[in-house]
Amino acid sequence: MDIYKSRLNLIKDRMKEKNIDGMILFPSSNQYYVTGFRTFPGERLLLSIIPVKGEPFFIAPMLYESQVRKESWIKEIVLWTDENKPYEILKKTMEQRGLNIGRFAVDDNLFAVQLLSMISVLPKIEFLPMGDLLGSLRLSKSAEEIDKIRQAGKIVDEVVEEVRKNAKPGMTEIEVAAMMEFEMRKRGSEGPSFETIVGSGPNSALPHYNAGERRINSGEFIVLDFGAIYKGYCSDTTRTLCMGEPADKMREVYNVVKEAQEIGVRTVKPGIKAKDVDAAVRKHISDKGYGEYFIHRTGHGLGLEIHEEPYISGISESILKPGMVFSIEPGIYINGEFGVRIEDIVVVTEDGCERLNNYPRDLTSINV
Ligand code: GLY
Ligand code: MN
Ligand code: MN
Predict the structure, then answer these.
(1) Measured from the CB, is residue 194 less than 6 Å from ligand 1?
(2) Alpha carbon separation from 99 to 21, 33, 51, 123, 178 (Å, rounded)
(3) Would you say residue 1 has pLDDT above 80?
């Protein structure tokens, strides 16, 4: 529990600096980070209120009581049942505690409909976006956090190998995705860190495709982009495998992406800006003549969330520091034909970075 006490002290200092009277958290990675309690977002009002002065407390539906008591260090819970009006209870509770006036930062993930109801019952509160109040604390990961991400990365490395061994021509993308999610769970994952992407043939050129009923043919690329959640922490890896043997153009494009990804990883070190990593990767792809086909940023931070600071984009002034964890994931997407992406997560070290995914990056064919 000491970790939570020290986080709370830092958070209270940050709120005082910014003249904020409290923080209102909703089921999210922020709520987990601050309170230790984790559940999925829903329509029922389930808030953790962290005032600068006074004790933090939950407002929670009765059905969560035992779970909150089990998981969180916060002991005070104002409970409501499905027969109550939760916003009336929120209003009364805030008034009783003298918290019905002031400036409160709200979780970015709070449903708009809930914020609108809160505004109507608490008209004297100025609600503010969370901004970097918690983001900057979560930016550099501790050794324990990095170990969890490393384990989440190892699960994914093993699952890519399962696909290489077991995928066959004629399988649908959904069948491959099901195999991946089953194999992740078998290895201790609490679930996928985002919707598993299995893009075959022309679908491999759609960076945020999902998985469909298309059957995978021999001679096609399959982009596998997926991650595991392990003890709350996310991994995120992409490997582009080929079902059988690729055509020459596919081989050429694959090698450009592989070189660009390697250049990105080698560029990372403390003290440089995130945008310098993006520039190095982008330059290589442009020099090879494929610049217009690299249509997204180079990477993003991850941890409790699959996408968080620091973003590795052409406009990111973030200065890299040891303990930051992010992806390096260049891609080339030739619409209607095929795409290639290779993604690893890295942690910044004192003199460079360490990859947290290690599945081979050489062009790998599935035997057909
Ligand atoms: N969620 C897809 C990616 O960032 O790699
Ligand atoms: Mn990914
Ligand atoms: Mn990613």
Answers:
(1) yes
(2) 8, 23, 8, 12, 48
(3) no
**pLDDT value at residue 274:** 98
Q: What is the pLDDT of residues 235-287, one digit of tens each?
A: 999 999 999 999 999 999 999 999 999 999 999 999 999 999 999 999 999 99
Which sequence spans correspond to the domains of the chain? 2-138, 143-366
CATH of range 2-138; options 3.30.750.24, 3.40.190.10, 3.30.565.60, 3.40.350.10: 3.40.350.10
Pick the CATH number of 143-366 from 3.90.230.10, 3.30.70.100, 3.40.50.300, 1.10.530.10: 3.90.230.10
Distance 236 CA to ligand 2 centre (A): 5
Give CA–CA dist 90/126, Å, rounded: 16
Three-point CA angle 253, 254, 256, nearest 5°? 65
Distance between alpha carbon 286 and the CA centroid of its chain, in Å?
28
Q: Is the CB of 225 under 6 A from ligand 1?
A: yes
Helix (H/G/I), strand (E/B), else coil: 167: coil
Model confidence, pTM = 0.94
